[in-house]
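Morning - 5-amino-5-deoxy-1-O-phosphono-D-mannitol inputs below, output right after.
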Amino acid sequence: MCGIFGIIGKKNCVQDLLKGISKLEYRGYDSAGLSIPSTKEMITIKNKGKVSGLQEKVESFNLFKDDAYSTGIIHTRWATHGVPSEANSHPHNGNQNIISVVHNGIIENYRSLKSSLISEGYSFNSETDSEVLAVLIEKFYEKGQLLKAVNKALKEVDGAYAIAVVSNEDINQLVVARKKSPLVIGKGKDRIFIASDPLPIIEYTKDIFYMKDGYVASIIGDQVKVYDENENPIEIKYEHCSMSPQSIAKDGYDHFMLKEIYEQPEAIESAIAGRVFKDQTEITLEDDILNKDLVNRINRIVIIGCGTAWHAGLIGRNIFERFTKLPVQVDYASDFRYRDPIIDENTLVIAISQSGETADTLGALALANENKTPTLAIVNAVGSTMTREANEVIYTRAGPEIGVASTKAFSAQVLVLYLVAMHIGTIRGILDVDERKRRIKNILKLPSSIRETFKKCSNIKKIASIFKDATNTLFLGRGTGYPVALEGALKLKEISYIHAEGYHAAELKHGPLALVDENMPVVVLALKGRRYSKIINNIEEVKARGGKIIAIVSEGDKEMKNITSDIIEVSEDVGILNSILVAIPMQLLSYYVAVVRGCDVDQPRNLAKSVTVE
Ligand code: M6R
C-alpha cells in the first residue's frame, strides 16, 4: 500500500527521487519522506501529507546540486500501524542514524521484536511496525556489511515486506528485499533504480527485473547482485517493459479518473486485439491458455477478487452460467482464503485483479495453488506478482490505471471474462456457431457503443448537482444490473464520501425502502430487457415514497420520460456486454459528484490504489 523508490548512481538523485515517488503516490499518500546517506550524516526529511508537501520541504535544504547526494530512498505512505504523522512516515532510521529503511507491507511480529529491542536498550520514535526493521538492521550492522545485517534482521521478522535500506557508512550501496510485497529493479545507463512497480523507472530504462519472494539484492555502484531466500546467488534476467511514460500522464484531463473513463474504447480495443476476429467464430486466447483438456475436465468455476474486481466477477458469473452451463461461485478473495472452500483439480479458479498485487487475492490464489486447483489470473498490471503465481494469465491490457477508483480496468475485466466464457462455451459445445457469430459482432461493436454512450452523457454534470448535499443514496439494479449497481455505489462512496448502497432492486421492499424519502437520490439501472417491467415497479415504489429517481435507460426509452426527467441514455445493443455501457454513466456521475463536492478525485481519503496488505 506504500510506494518505494530508490536510486543509486554517480549524479545527484534528489529531484529524480521526488519526481519518481510522485508516480507512486497512487499507492498511498498520507505522508512521504526520503533519506540520502552522506559521509557526514544520514539526511532524512519527512512530511505529513502528499509528496508535493515533501517537495516544498526538501527545497529549503540545499540538496539538489551536490553529486555526493547520488544514492537515496524515498517513500509515500498509506498508514497501517500508526496515524499519518511526520514521526510515523518513512524512512525510519536506527538509533545511531547509520541505517535508514523504507518499507511496504506489515511486520506481523513487530510488537514482540519491539519489546525485546526496548529491553536491550533500543528506543523507538514511531508507532509503526516498520521502525523495528531499521533498529534491527542497525543492531546487526558492521561497517561494510550492510547486506549481512539485512539478512540477519529479515530472519527475525514475520510478515510481508518490500524494503530498501541505505547506510551512511556505505553510501554507494543500496540493499533491497522482497516478501509478499512487490519490488522491481531497473537497470539504467549509469544508474540503478528500485521501486514498488516500474512506473517511476520507465522514463530511465525499460529493463526491469521483478524480484521474487524471498529475494534480497545488494546494489553497489552499478553492480546488482541478487540472492534467494537461502542466500544463493540468482541470475538476473531483465525483462523489457513496454509501458510508455506518456501512458501515465494526465494528457490535459483534470484527473486521471476522467482520462481513464474516456480511455475505455481503446482499453477494450486493446483487450480484443488478436483475440477476436470478425471473420472467425472462435476466441483466440494466446499461449494455448485454457486448453481443450483443461476446459473439458473442469466441472466448476470459482471467481475471486476484491472491490471492483469482485463486481466484475459477479457479472462474469451470469456470463459464464449462460455460455458454459457450469456452476459458478463468486467469492471475496479475503473470505475464500480463510474458509475451507470446496475446490479440487476439476475446479477452475479465476482471480481478477487490476494491480495483480492485492494481498487477499494473492492469498486466495495461493490456497488454490496448494490444492492443485487450476488457476487463471485476469490481471492488468504487467509483470505483477499475480501473473507469476497463477498457472495461466490473461492480461486485460487496459493500460496503467492511476486513479484510485477503478474504471477502465473494470470494463476490460468484464470483457476478458466474456472472452474466457465464450472460449469455454465453444470448446464445451454450449455455444453454436450462430450464437458465437452474434456475440463476436457484439464484442467488436463495443468500442463504438462506448463512444456513442459518451455522447449521451452530456447531462450528467447537471444531474451530479442533485447529489451535492446528499448524505445517502441507493443504486438499484437487477440481473447484471445488480453488480453494476454495487459498482456504481462503490464508485460514488469512495470518491465523494456520500454513503451509497448498491442493492438488488427486488430486495428493495425487504428493507431498504424504509430509507427512502425526498432527500434520497436513487439511481436505477433500467435498460430495456426481460426485467424491465419489474424495474419500473421498483421505480414506482421509490417514487411513491418521494424518492428522487435518476434512471439509466436504453436510448429512446419514452416510458421512462414520463416517470422522471433525470435520465441518462445508454446506446445499448451489445447484449450482456451492456453491463459495461451502463457502468460508464455511473463512473461519470461519481466523478462529477466528487468534483462538485470538492473532493480529491484521484486520491480519495483513507484509500490507496494497490491494497498489498490484508
Ligand atoms: O488491484 P485489484 O483489482 O485487485 O484491486 C481490488 C480493489 O482494491 C479495487 O477494485 C478497489 O475496490 C477500487 N478502488 C475500486 O474502485
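Note: The first strand starts at residue 3 and ends at 8.

O.
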